[in-house]
Write a structure and sequence with these properties.
single chain, alpha/beta, FAD/NAD(P)-binding domain, 8-stranded mixed beta sheet, 5-stranded parallel beta sheet, binds flavin-adenine dinucleotide
C-alpha cells in the first residue's frame, strides 16, 4: 500500500512529489511509497502544451518559483546553461525564459527520478476503506493512506455558449488551451482572429506575427489592463494571508479572492510590445465582442461584431479566454463529496483545514485549495505554499 497517491501530475503534483520524497522539512517518503497518477504521456504535459501554444517566451512569475526545493536552484542551474539565441531572464523581477524553465524542470525530474514514480491513468472514483483509500483509475485500483488532489483546471476552458454549436466546423474555432489545438500548425497567409485581452491573447498574437505571415486581429471586449503579476505579491506571505486565514465566512473569502485576482491582465512589457505591433499595423486591435459567427459557402468564418455591426471574414478564431472558474475535478470530485460528505463553501469549492486536508487523509492543492491558500493557489508558488502546510 502507498503512503501517498498524488492525483494529477502537472506542476503541482510534480513539485509535491519532489517535496514529499526529498525535503528535509518532512519525513522522506520512500520512492516505492509514492505514486503520481496522470493520464498524459509526459510529465507536466498540460503546462508544456499550454505554454507552447500560447507562444509564451518568459514566465510571468520570478525565477524563485519552480519545481525544485531550494528557491535559488533555477538561478544556479541557469549559470550552467548556454543559450545561443534569446536571453535567460527578462526584467523586471528576473522572470526566467520558458526555455530555461523547461530545461530546469527536465533536470529536476532527472535528478530526483520523478519519472520513476508516475503511473499513467485517470482517477475515476475514490472510496474510503478501513485504513486507507482505494482509487479506481483507468490503470486499475490503487490503495493509499493519503491522497493529494492536484487536478489543476486545464480541462475546463472558458468559452462562449455558441462555440459548442460550431464544433463541427473542422477546428476553425478553438481555444488556445484545447488539447486538439497546435499553434505551430496554423499555416501561413490566413486571417486569424484571437479573442481575449489578457496575457495569453497578447502572447499568441505576438507569436503568430513573429512565426507566420498570417493577418492577426485581436478582439477584446475590454481595454488592456496592465498588471505585473496576476495578483499582488503580498498574497504570497503574511501581508495579506494572515488576515485572510482568520476569516470564517467562506463567501467573504471567495469575494476577496475574486477581487484580488487581476483576471485578463497583462504585464506592462507585454502590453507595450503588443501596442507596438498594433501601431505598426502588424496586429489589428478591435475593442468589441462577437455577436454572431456563421460558416460561409467557401468554408470561411463570417463574424458580426456587437457594437459596430462590422462584419469580418476569417479562417480561424482562437479563444484566449482562460479557464472557467467553477470547481475543478468534475465527476471525481462530485463522487468524493457525496461518498465522504465533504464540506464545500457556497461557491462549491472545498472547505479544508490549515494542513489542506478536506477530511483525514484527503489533501488538495491548486484551485481546489484556494479558499485556504488564497489567490495564488493555482500558480507555481501555490504548490510551494501547499508543501509548507504539509509539514
Ligand atoms: C499559458 C500559461 C502560463 C502560465 N504561466 C505561469 C507563470 O508564469 N507562473 C505561475 O506561477 N503560474 C503560471 N500559470 C498558472 C499555473 O502555474 C499553471 O496553470 C500550472 O500548469 C498549474 O499546474 P497544475 O499542476 O495545478 O495543473 P495542470 O498543469 O493542469 O496539471 C493537472 C494535471 O492533473 C491531471 N488530472 C486532472 N484530473 C485527473 C484525474 N481525475 N486523474 C488523474 N489526473 C488528473 C491533468 O490531466 C493534468 O495533467 C500559467 C498558466 C498557463 C495556462
Amino acid at each position: 500500500m502507498l503512503d501517498w497517491l498524488i492525483v494529477g501530475g502537472g506542476i503541482h503534483g510534480t513539485y509535491l512529489s519532489n517535496f514529499l520524497m526529498n525535503s528535509k522539512l518532512c519525513v522522506h517518503y520512500k520512492t516505492e511509497k509514492i505514486l503520481v497518477l496522470d493520464p498524459n504521456d509526459q510529465i507536466m504535459e498540460r503546462w508544456n502544451r499550454n505554454t507552447r501554444n500560447s507562444c509564451m517566451d518568459f514566465l510571468r512569475s520570478p525565477r524563485v518559483h519552480h519545481i525544485d526545493l531550494n528557491p535559488n536552484a533555477l538561478y544556479e542551474f541557469g549559470k550552467t546553461q548556454k543559450f545561443s539565441n534569446g536571453s535567460m531572464y527578462t526584467d523586471p523581477y528576473f522572470r526566467p525564459s520558458l526555455e530555461l524553465f523547461r530545461r530546469h524542470c527536465d533536470s529536476v525530474i532527472y535528478k530526483c527520478k520523478l519519472d520513476k514514480i508516475r503511473i499513467k491513468g485517470l482517477a475515476v472514483s475514490i472510496k474510503k476503506l478501513k485504513h486507507c483509500f482505494e482509487v479506481e483509475s483507468t490503470a486499475g485500483f490503487i490503495k493509499s493512506k493519503k491522497i493529494m488532489l492536484s487536478l489543476g483546471m486545464s480541462n475546463q476552458l472558458a468559452l462562449p455558449n455558441y462555440v459548442s454549436a460550431c464544433e463541427k466546423w473542422d477546428g476553425k474555432i478553438c481555444h488556445v488551451f484545447d488539447t486538439k489545438f497546435d499553434s505551430g500548425k496554423i499555416g501561413h497567409d490566413k486571417e486569424i482572429i484571437i479573442i481575449g485581452g489578457g496575457i495569453s491573447a497578447a502572447q499568441l498574437a505576438q507569436g503568430l506575427v513573429k512565426k507566420s505571415t498570417n493577418n492577426v486581429t485581436l478582439i477584446s471586449r475590454d481595454k488592456f489592463k496592465t498588471y505585473q503579476f496576476d495578483s499582488d505579491p503580498g498574497w504570497i506571505g503574511p501581508k495579506y494571508l494572515n488576515k485572510f486565514q482568520k476569516i470564517d465566512n467562506y463567501s467573504l473569502r471567495r469575494e476577496i479572492i475574486d477581487a484580488a485576482r487581476q483576471c485578463g491582465s497583462l504585464p506592462p512589457d507585454i502590453c507595450e510590445s503588443l501596442k507596438n505591433l498594433v501601431s505598426n499595423n502588424l496586429v489589428r486591435f478591435i475593442l468589441d465582442e462577437i455577436e454572431l459567427v456563421r460558416l460561409t459557402k467557401t468554408k470561411r468564418l463570417e463574424i458580426k461584431l456587437n457594437k459596430t455591426s462590422e462584419r469580418l471574414v476569417a479562417d480561424r478564431i482562437i479563444f484566449a479566454t482562460g479557464f472557467a472558474t467553477f470547481r475543478p475535478g468534475g465527476d471525481l470530485i462530485d463522487q468524493l463529496i457525496s461518498e465522504l460528505g465533504l464540506a464545500c463553501a457556497p461557491c462549491g469549492y472545498p472547505v479544508v483545514d490549515k494542513s489542506l486536508q478536506w477530511c483525514p487523509g484527503i489533501f488538495v492543492s491548486g484551485p481546489l485549495a484556494e479558499l485556504e491558500i488564497g489567490p495564488v493557489a493555482k500558480n507555481i508558488v501555490g504548490a510551494r505554499l501547499t508543501a509548507k502546510r504539509l509539514i
